[in-house]
């Protein structure tokens, strides 16, 4: 295997040497492709195929990367790939001229070219462009992967996404869909009167989630700052300021591990709506997921792996306590103390920490026995107060809060609250988080005095929700890992 890799490296080095020699010849002849600054690209490949009836025999100019070439004496064929797809080009010596045809024959797979010619259909019925002019726009000095196998090395696909996009149409389509998902989210929320805003990424107090932040130093102010882990606390300040319906789509950063569903930097969308509660957020979420499936996938019944998921039916609603009872037979409403809860955890081989209380144990039971069972869309409601420091208590049961998480395919897709708007209660919750931090919990939140002051000005009843855009994209594109939907996922630096 090592010998094969060494031979492959030597072969590539030789190919690169030949390509650089070709470039040097062009430059010596005053034909440096890198001196060309623009090209009039009048049509794209799929547009020509789609509008063939109107474009037949019409002159067009296309541009893209040459992905295939077959030279046959006086006439040749090549394929040009642009952002929409590929189209065949017929190249004849008599149309190009002797010298230009020689130049075409010396071009390589991967070169970026411009083609001017007329649209026609070959004898086999393939819509093509009959070239009258071919211009080399950029010389590819490094060869692409072998055409029949593409870029299959997963690690290399993530590190060299530019090659992955060239070679793997499925990968390119995933990122086109990702862009459409974000675009359609904006359309959906704009139609409901939401305003898109931007809030700081560098913050003195990273709050709004249970996560360990990244830290850095701000030289100009000589202060240590953190990268945000959530969008919540600034968006709530805007609700207090009277904007009523706000959302932000942006990067957040959490200093945690990497797996198939987690990346240290990821895209979060959070929205807040005044004068509604978590039931309002449920309606919005269900409507938005259904809308996105229709717009992006063309159907509300989507396929993920070997599972068919129906986003068209009403989403199920289930309390966290009832979900655990359904799977284990344990009713935590009948468990009075933390000691009893820990005893149950021991009996069911659930690991916990000394600092954990009953609410934490409830959450651990849900994670262990319920989460992966939630394949069809299910709202899990009414979480323990101990794990929800920014959420309003349920009026009829102060041990729980008005919160839900949406689960699809066994994944948490979003997290929503009837937001806490009592500044006195909020201060007490922050104090409890401070105590956890002092006890060694690196993911605990800290008291944010400016946010508390904003709440003391007066915050209306509000519903809020956060969606992980990457996980949503995984679901709607049938992608196995979060790295498949991140153009440039976090990777360990390769050593020389």
Overview of the structural elements:
- There is one protein chain.
- The protein is an alpha+beta fold and 496 residues long.
- It folds into two domains: 143 residues, OB fold (Dihydrolipoamide Acetyltransferase, E2P), CATH 2.40.50.140; 257 residues, Bira Bifunctional Protein, Domain 2 (BirA Bifunctional Protein, domain 2, 2-Layer Sandwich), CATH 3.30.930.10.
- It has 16 helices and 20 strands.
- The strands form five sheets. It has an eight-stranded mixed sheet, with helices on both faces.
- The mean pLDDT is 93.
Q: Uncertain segments of ≥5 residues (pLDDT<50)? A: none
Q: How many β strands by DSSP? A: 20
Using only C-alpha atoms, the radius of gyration works out to: 29 Å
Mean pLDDT: 93
Q: What is the domain total for the residues?
A: 2
Structural class, please?
A: alpha+beta
**Which outline best applies?**
elongated
Strand percentage: 25-35%
CATH class of the largest domain: Alpha Beta
- CATH fold name of the largest domain: BirA Bifunctional Protein, domain 2
What key phrases describe this protein's structure?
elongated; single chain; BirA Bifunctional Protein, domain 2; about 500 residues; about 25% strand; eight-stranded mixed sheet; five-stranded mixed β-barrel; alpha+beta; OB fold (Dihydrolipoamide Acetyltransferase, E2P)
């Amino acid at each position: 295997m090592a010998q094969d890799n060494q031979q492959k490296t030597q072969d590539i080095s030789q190919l690169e040497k030949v390509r650089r020699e070709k470039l040097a010849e062009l430059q010596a002849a005053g034909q440096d492709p890198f001196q060309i600054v623009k090209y009039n690209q009048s049509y794209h490949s799929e547009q020509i195929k789609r509008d063939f009836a109107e474009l037949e025999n019409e002159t067009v100019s296309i541009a893209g990367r040459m992905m295939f070439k077959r030279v046959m004496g006086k006439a040749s064929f090549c394929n040009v790939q642009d952002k929409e797809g590929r189209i065949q080009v017929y190249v004849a010596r008599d149309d190009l001229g002797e010298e230009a045809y020689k130049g075409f024959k010396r071009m390589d797979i991967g070169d970026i070219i411009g083609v001017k010619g007329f649209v026609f259909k070959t004898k086999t019925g393939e819509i093509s462009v009959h070239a009258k002019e071919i211009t080399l726009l950029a010389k590819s000095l490094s060869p692409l992967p072998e055409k029949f196998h593409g870029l299959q090395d997963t690690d290399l696909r993530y590190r060299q996404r530019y090659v992955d996009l060239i070679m793997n149409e499925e990968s390119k389509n995933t990122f086109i869909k990702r862009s459409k998902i974000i675009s359609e989210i904006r359309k959906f929320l704009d139609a409901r009167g939401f305003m898109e805003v931007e809030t700081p990424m560098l913050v003195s107090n990273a709050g709004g989630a249970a996560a360990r932040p990244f830290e850095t130093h701000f030289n100009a102010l000589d202060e240590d700052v953190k990268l945000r882990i959530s969008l919540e606390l600034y968006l709530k300040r805007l609700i207090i300021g009277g904007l009523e319906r706000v959302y932000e789509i942006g990067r957040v950063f959490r200093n945690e591990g990497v797996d198939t569903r987690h990346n240290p930097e990821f895209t979060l969308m959070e929205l807040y709506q005044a004068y509604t509660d978590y039931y309002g957020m449920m309606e919005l979420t269900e409507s938005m997921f259904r809308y996105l499936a229709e717009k992006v996938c063309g159907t509300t019944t989507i396929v993920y792996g070997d599972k068919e998921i129906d986003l068209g039916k009403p989403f199920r609603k289930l309390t966290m306590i009832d979900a655990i009872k359904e799977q284990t037979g344990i009713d935590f409403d009948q468990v009075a103390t933390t000691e009893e809860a820990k005893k149950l955890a021991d009996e069911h081989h659930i690991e916990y920490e000394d600092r954990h209380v009953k609410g934490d144990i409830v959450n651990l039971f849900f994670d262990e026995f319920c989460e992966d069972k939630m394949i069809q869309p299910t709202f899990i409601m009414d979480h323990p107060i101990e794990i929800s420091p920014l959420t309003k208590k349920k009026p009829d049961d102060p041990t729980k809060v008005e919160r839900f998480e949406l689960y699809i395919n066994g994944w948490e897709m979003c997290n929503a609250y009837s937001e806490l708007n009592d500044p006195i209660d909020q201060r007490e919750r922050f104090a409890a988080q401070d105590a956890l931090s002092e006890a060694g919990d690196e993911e605990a939140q800290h008291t944010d005095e400016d946010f508390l002051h904003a709440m003391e000005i007066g915050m209306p009843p509000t519903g809020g929700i956060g969606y992980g855009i990457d996980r949503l994209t995984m679901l709607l594109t049938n992608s196995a890992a979060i790295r498949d939907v991140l153009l440039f996922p976090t990777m360990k630096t390769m050593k020389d």
